[in-house]
Write a structure and sequence with these properties.
The protein is mostly helical and 380 residues long. Helix content is 67%, strand content 2%.
């Protein structure tokens, strides 16, 4: 919005044409607004929700003191993402709208789940099967949108480069529904459009639910989400910028550089939310936030063809999701628990780690995994 309005008046410097400059503006905008509106939103949610988010009776004893803390804090993060994106991103770019739409849609699914938990005053919300079905439909539609827009974005990028007297290679035909493999240059597996839609929908839905499993301690989920968001912001910028993609031997995804602005908004909104979510948290993000953020990250990974790298960068989320699956399968087979409690962050709490210890150590793991994911950009 402001990008289109101010670009003609930016002068010779033309600052607004630089994505990096708008990333900084988006991050700052999201951060300031979430910090300003954070407290009023917490007060309003506390009045509306009464007893706040229900606390599991079988959880760590220290969690019982959190009763009354309002949930649905994801609204605050989404507000920051919306402000930063709509003000500073190039809204003519459909990749921006794809990621933004999935983020909001997954947030809406999470809101329904949170609303049912709060109104029913229990930990059971929306039916798991219904929630997964809604997520798969949203994700599948988004992946189809990506496959339709990617060739158009590539042709547009080639035309813009030609107008500027430059020459860039257009991705090969069919790249829009192909899977790129980390560590290998120009290795693409054509999944066909239907196979890619199914695969992409699985990635987006899996990412949303993996972040949801991680959201169980004050500040635990938002830290790794910001780390992953910043990482994929850089990847999107690299893959969407021809000279960087060529230097790093990446599969170019023309048009995706603009997603760095969305990622900047995510980081800014996350920082503003973290101000109120540090122990002891004044607000929980709830499924409204965790599903939205995970879905947004998954969609970004599909757009830039780094779906497999998401498994490395978001390895902490994968670990959390696997711990739940292992716990369920092991209990059904043996009648016993593999972990003291799942997801795995609760296992460490039950083992004697304090909540801040679990959170900070998991942040460290997330940071190291992000570095490992970035290493795949050059190790080819």
């Amino acid at each position: 919005m402001l990008y289109e309005l101010l670009s003609p008046y930016a002068g010779d410097l033309n600052l607004f044409s630089f994505i990096t400059f708008r990333v900084a503006l988006a991050l700052t905008t999201a951060l300031i607004l979430t910090m300003i509106f954070g407290h009023p939103m917490i007060v309003w949610l506390r009045k509306k929700q009464g007893k706040g988010q229900p606390i599991r009776s079988d959880g760590p004893e220290s969690h019982q003191s959190k009763k009354g803390t309002p949930t649905m804090g994801g609204f605050l993060i989404l507000f920051g993402i919306a402000a930063g994106t709509l003000l500073w991103a190039d809204l003519r770019n459909q990749y921006v709208w794809i990621v933004f739409t999935v983020t909001l849609a997954f947030g809406a699914v999470g809101f329904i789940d949170d609303y049912q938990k709060v109104t029913k005053k229990g930990t059971a919300g929306l039916s798991g099967k219904i929630r997964l079905l809604m997520e798969f439909v949203i994700a599948g539609a988004a992946v189809y949108w990506i496959t339709q827009y990617a060739p158009y974005a590539a042709d547009e990028a080639v035309a813009r480069a030609a107008a500027a007297g430059l020459t860039i290679d257009r991705p090969e035909v069919g790249f829009e529904h192909s899977l790129a493999v980390p560590f290998f240059k120009d290795v693409l597996f054509d999944l066909t459009i239907y196979g890619f839609i199914a695969f992409g929908a699985f990635i987006i839905t899996g990412a949303g639910n993996a972040v949801n499993f991680t959201d169980g301690l004050d500040g635990l989920a938002i830290g790794p989400v910001m780390i992953a968001g910043a990482t994929f912001g850089f990847i999107a910028y690299a893959c969407g910028t021809p000279r960087f993609a060529e230097y790093l031997l990446l599969t170019p995804t023309p048009g995706t550089a603009e997603l760095a602005v969305v990622a900047g908004s995510l980081v800014g909104g996350g920082l503003g939310f973290l101000w109120y979510n540090v122990p002891p948290a004044k607000i929980f993000m709830g499924d409204t936030g965790s599903l939205a953020l995970g879905g947004g990250l998954g969609t970004m990974a599909v757009c830039v063809k780094h779906e497999l790298v998401l498994g490395i960068v978001g390895g902490l989320f994968v670990l959390e999701a696997l711990s739940v699956m292992i716990q369920v399968i092991y209990f059904k087979l043996t009648g016993k628990r593999f972990f003291k409690m799942a997801p795995i962050h609760h296992h460490f709490e039950k083992s004697g780690w304090s909540e801040p210890t679990v959170v900070i150590r998991f942040w460290i793991i997330a940071f190291l995994l992000a570095l490992a994911g970035l290493a795949t950009l050059k190790l080819r």
